[in-house]
Amino acid sequence: MVDSELGSTSASSSSFSHFGIFHNYPLISAVLAFAIAQTGKFIITWYKENRWDPKRLVGSGGMPSSHSSTVTALAMAVGFSEGFGSSFFATAVILAAVVMYDAFGVRLHAGRQAEVLNQIVLELPTEHPLAVTRPLRELLGHTPPEVVAGGILGVVVATVAHIINTFGG
């Protein structure tokens, strides 16, 4: 029996395909966009600061926003595969908007507050109990240009993946 909505058979939907995940175009696009953005942060840090910082491969904050590139690539890939008028695309776009807003809103300001709190702790007398606390992470969010750059990267990755998926394989 074929499920016309999803285009799959009942037998295949009840069993797990170990290799089906490698044909999931939206997932591949999102993971690829994330990997490219994180690698870009690593290279940009090396270029600007003349040092290799492996934490940039997994850390948040910086140019470009990997959160934005991931959710934008996901939304675009869902649009290409399910249709830009589908409820799946609408859901992915709302998710992308929330994540991108959070990246340059709440998380950016939390990072700025961490900077201020770290400075206050540095100025405390050494005998104060908080003077020995570990510094808070300051690079949490993104500036609007970092979010936009991540969004553009996500669109480009999903579009190129769509072209390859459509014409190349």
Automatic annotation (TrEMBL):
InterPro entries: DUF212. The chain crosses the membrane at residues 25-47, 73-101, 147-167. Keywords: Membrane, Transmembrane, Transmembrane helix. This is Divergent PAP2 family. It comes from Carex littledalei.
